[in-house]
From TrEMBL:
Residues 36-58 have a biased composition (Low complexity). This is TonB-dependent receptor. Belongs to the TonB-dependent receptor family. It is a multi-pass membrane protein. CDD domains: ligand_gated_channel. It comes from Gluconobacter kondonii. Residues 338-797 form the TonB-dependent receptor-like beta-barrel domain.
Amino acid sequence: MVKVLTQLSLRHLTLLGTSLLGSTFVLMTAESRAATPQPASAHSAPAAHTQTHPTPASKKAKHAQTPKHETEVSGGSEALVVTGTREFGKKARDSIAPVDIVTNRQLTGTGQPTLRDSLALLLPSLTVPTGGFDAGALTDSISLRGLNPNETLVLVDGKRRHTTANIYADGGPAQGSTPVDIDMIPMAMIDHIEVLRDGASAQYGSDAIAGVVNIILKKQNHGLTMRSNTGITSEGDGFQQGVFIDGGLNLNNRGFVHIGGDFVHQDHTFRSGNDNRTNTDVNQLLGQPEQTRESVAINAGYDITDDIQAYAGATYAHRHAESYQNYRLPTSLAKYPGYAAIYPYGYSPIEALEEDDYELTAGLKGTLAGWHWDVSSVFGRDYDALNANSTTNVGLYTATGETPTSFAAQSYNNTQWTNSVDLSRKFRTSFWPYAINVAGGASYRYEAYAIGTGSPASYNYSSSDGFPGTNPANAGKWSRDVAAGYLDISTNLMKHWQVDLAGRVEHYTDVGNTKTGKVSTRYDFSPRFAIRGTFSNGFHAPTLAQEHYSALSVSPTAASGIIAANSPGALANGASALKSESSTSAEGGIIVEPVKKLHVTVDVYQIDLRNRIMPGGSIYGSQAHSALEMDGFNLPPGSGSWTGSQLATHWFANVANTRTQGLDLSATYPTDFGRYGHADWDVAINLNRTRLRHQATSTTGAPLLTAQYIAYITTAYPRSKIIFGGTWHSARNKWAVSVHEIRYGETTSQLTYYTGPYAYSTSHYLEFQNVPKWTTNASVTYNISPKWSATIGGNNIFAKFPSVVPEGNRYLGVPKYYMSTSQLGMNGGYYYLDVSARF
């Protein structure tokens, strides 16, 4: 570790000098870092104060009820929240549903340059994939409460965010998801994040089954915030550099403009085992992809009158990312001397992503006759161009005498345009002793998804090796319209008894109508003890990608893929049209202060999810060959005689009903040491279990799931995740030390055999336990001056890794760790140096 930190420090100092000379070195605010990395639990840490422009309209609004855009985060349970409620001025500690507040200070305190990985270190109920491979590794996804990423809704300033176009098509619990890639939003622009751990489809629509993540952007009208973060893994690879900058401008004391951006680069990490064909580590399939991401955002508001504000915002991000495919032996080119000369030592095909993501928001809001109103339009788009590099098309070479080594293979486009009207007002009447808050609204959303063709060389003949291009038969553009309306009424039944009723109707032009409702209540027995509960139903409409996506992965002697559920090949083998997932959720909890300053919350939940969408209906060998040919795929010569272990395909289907049960616990406690400073202690726990209640069958009567896919749904997420520790601050706030432990619970997988009597069996698997793991995160911060601070720290400082997969269950011996779970990451330790400032 000392050696790695020395290397890190030297590299950071070199970069520091170079960056200063080039005037590009940026650092973060001393205020947001001055008190150091905050506790790893998001429940207790004070939230950074958000200064909004003091316009006449905002002053008037604060005197009455704080509008959504003027929310001030003052700290922890005292923070005002806007997620899970339509009331203004609601504090987190008074919330009718469990809400975690994660501040910018906490995010940067993790030392991670990406938002996804920062949240994973702070929230027990949130998980990320252990690792990735193929195109799925090139998009960053998050999951709540052990459910697919598609069941978590992401908002930005309360508005639905568009999703990625890059579907996670590889096996695992996230398969089939096209989540919001939150790392395409600049971390520098994030003020805080509200995570609602509760079903909220009745309030926000599709996808809010597991919960809602609402990202609140900065709205300060002054200041300049800068930060540089440099890190490296315990193995000496995976170097990361992050540069973050943001600042605010005052618009004539009536408005603000806040602008920020990130630059993040991550090198490859290599965690593969030896390739059993060469007995060397030449096959670098397993590990973190290389990634370079540039992102920028602008957020603005202006008071046109004392009662009307115009607001607008935009985000743009570009990502270049690369991941490796399995190594090809030099002998694979023995018949092609021209290309054997290019790759004399063999080659590893590379999947390269060029992604452009943007979103534009504009709206007006204000007050009229006591009503708060908000009219908005949000347009978002994500475009992904996937290229196959460092590879060949040997079939094309055989036919024409030449082949490119780089191919434009696939492209995907996802568009979302949402137009909304929201109204709310608090009434006081003579017939009811308590205020009644009434909210309602309507929205229209247009969604479009497109699959583009690759270059002819990428799909003709034997296709580009490792990553075939999309042929015209599987390309196309699809769209749908979504209209919705909702009503939300909240009041008190007694002085200390709150109740909230919400209902929503939606119409999808492709899957029909949905109706959802929610009843929430809370009773405060005293200022130190309260109970709360929720009962709701929800839904997730199948995405256009799940309905229409198809792709094939090809090696010289094997191929596997996904065909569209409505394609001729799928329909001929038992597929049927996708239906919406639907859920019924129940939750109950307590909020208690058993002794002064010890704040504890405990929530239990149950989510019954029906018609879950996952790949199903696997077919093999000649049956798969026939289906793929019906759908227009070009297969390698001789593939018609391939066995079931060599050729397989499936499609997305409503495969099962499940029940997820769990518990969330959080506790915080401060300790004052007088002239020796003070410490903030915290603990947060998530216990989670999913059971299969019913497995669906195809139209032919065949089961849609194998034991392997049942494990993806039920046991690929950890049974528990525990975060606990504390942060000590010196009396004058010059020093701070933070130490936190994270325990990742067990995951269980069903592994394919690649050797032995059950090699490539589709009915016999090895049950494999990825045993619980403990990791330690620690950091030391020194506040150099009121404006500058520096932190040195590490996550997983003792370099723990997932359990090692048995040799007989690794394809070619390479996947040393099992990628298709969401437990401990495979990179090992990560050590960083962070320098920050504010002007």
